Amino acid sequence: ASNTADTLFQEVLGRKDKADSTRNALNVLQRFKFLFNLPLNIERNIQKGDYDVVINDYEKAKSLFGKTEVQVFKKYYAEVETRIEALRELLLDKLLETPSTLHDQKRYIRYLSDLHAPGDPAWQCIGAQHQWILQLMHNCKESYVKEQKGSNSLLHSPMLDLESDVRPSPIGHLGQTASLKRGSSFQSGRDDAWRYKAPQQVVFVEKLTKLVVSQLPNFWKLWISYVNGSLFSETAEKSGQMERSKKNARQRQNDFKKMIQEVMHSLVKLIRGALLPFSLREGELRQYGGWEMKSELSGQWLTHVIQTVRLSSESLTALEIPNDMLQIIQDLILDLRVRCIIVTLQHTAEDIKRLAEKEDWVVDNEGLTSLPSQFEQCIIHSLQSLKTVLDCKPGEASVFQQQKTQEDVCQLSIGIMQVFIDCLEQLSTKPDGDIDTSHLSVDVSSPDLFGSIHEDSSLSSEQRLLIALSNCRYLERHTFLNIAEHFEKHGFQGVDKITQVSMESLKELDQRLFEMYIEFKADPIVGSLEPGIYAGYFDWKDCLVPTG
């Protein structure tokens, strides 16, 4: 009977065992479907960018199956680890990708930290951003140098499309807002005609400083977040990561300081290469220069550049970067200010040389032409154009702090005065034919001397000498003293020396012109007496030698 029962129910029992086995397998699959579906879910969520979901699932799987000995679970968990490793690589690539926003950088760093990525992703990101900024700066220089030489090949490079690629920065906007109020160079709506007229070096400095002011704030904030550990959420489980981050930051403070200094040095040397190439060594000039210097920038453009660099310095100072890291920018501003003063005074001397062409010999009631007044106004206008350059902004040193600068400015100022004195001498001693005058004999004692000059546009040499003497006397008593006051008002050093040397030179000219005038007036008298002296053909040789 037993055998018969086994025969009858064997098939049924076999199907039952198979069903139970299948049911158990389904129960296992259902119970652990999270792990079995996790590799596919990870891939899908990565494609959608749901990294938070991936990290949460990974943490859960790691806590449940990280130390399992079940072969099936170990196999699937290994698949999970493979995909997580690929995610780490993907996130690291995204982290080091440039350009990128500070928000994205912090997000990727947190993801990598939660995934226990090896190394220090935050520091890798800081290093990548540092190299990116340096590359941007040098590419900016190369593009403008090539454009100056007639090539626009790099000007439209994606790395230089600052309007779309640079990361937004509140500090950058702060600097731009301030500059808008002051009419500065960062004005985004600047007229294209201005850029067309501006020298390439000036436009380059504007672009370069704008680049640094827009990029450096986020770079600095990333470091601050790295230092204080705020890259990680301040929860209990992340406290260990925060402490490790702070410890790493303390160890790398000097390295980061060198990064900031390298950016500042590159900024300053690139500007020096464009505007002050003589201040760089030969090796530095090859790296940071390359500009075609057909002529030096005028004082007006140098003043504009100084304002641009000053605003950049203010924006960087607002980041609370230590002053010792920004001192190199202050040194650059000082050198630019000194150069601007030197160039302006040199151009002023050239302008004064051309005053001789404007002399119309029209004499006023005081016996003066407009030349002394034009000379004084030219000096005043030059000094007024230097007012913003001479004024010291917070943190800046006086342009006259160095003895050499004082001496150079003093000599240039004396040179300007001497140029005008030479101009007076040239006008008063120029041959009559050069200025189309007729030879008129005018009595110096005539009360209508200057009246006749008003009426007749042509002057004799005697008249020009007399007018020049009148101008010299006015310069000595009024103009030179007024100019000395303006020099002192603008903080020039050695004003007494400038005045003394100029006065001595003026008096020497006055004496020479007076002697020339006396000679002109004496010649007719000598000419009339001389024939009578020799009328009797008297000769001392015929006289006896006195004896006794």
TrEMBL record:
Highest taxon, organism lineage: Eukaryota
Keyword terms: Exocytosis, Protein transport, Transport
GO terms for biological process, alphabetical: exocytosis; Golgi to plasma membrane transport; protein transport
GO cellular component, one term: exocyst
Sequence intervals crossing the membrane: none
Cross-referenced Pfam families: Sec5
The keyword Glycosyltransferase appears for this protein: no
Statement: the UniProt record of this protein carries the keyword Protein transport: yes
Exocyst complex component EXOC2/Sec5 N-terminal domain boundaries: 2-546
UniProt family annotation: Belongs to the SEC5 family.
Quaternary structure, from the entry: Component of the exocyst complex.
Protein task: Component of the exocyst complex involved in the docking of exocytic vesicles with fusion sites on the plasma membrane.
Name of the molecule in the record: Exocyst complex component 2
Species this chain originates from: Furnarius figulus
Gene name of the encoded protein: Exoc2
